[in-house]
Amino acid sequence: MNDDKTIQCRDEKGADGFFVASVPALPGCHTQARSLDVLMERTREAIELCIEVQGQKLIDNEFIGIQRVAITV
To answer: Which SUPFAM superfamilies match (predicted)?
Structure first.
């Protein structure tokens, strides 16, 4: 039986212009693309592969929010 789930992912734009997605609930689950539309497709595929092929279990994290922290370097 399949369960439908909604999984949080973190999307960023790198200095090279690529969009990069990582999935905190699946450590090591990352993908990249040149557009956000393609990134969404690839993220879904990466999640499915991590669960099905690698047998990874979802870590049950509760999404709280995103913060920006200012520092001086």
So the answer is: TTHA1013/TTHA0281-like (SSF143100)
- Which domains can be identified in the chain, with CATH numbers? 1-73 (3.30.160.250)
Whether 44 and 29 have beta carbons less than 8 Å apart is answered as no
- HEC string for the chain: CCCCCCCCCEEEECCCCCEEEECCCCCCCEEEECCHHHHHHHHHHHHHHHHHCCCCCCCCCCCCCCCCCCCCC
- pLDDT tens-digit readout, 7-19: 899 999 999 999 9
Question: Taking CA 5 as the corner, what is the angle to CA 7 and CA 33, rounded to the nearest 5 degrees?
Answer: 40
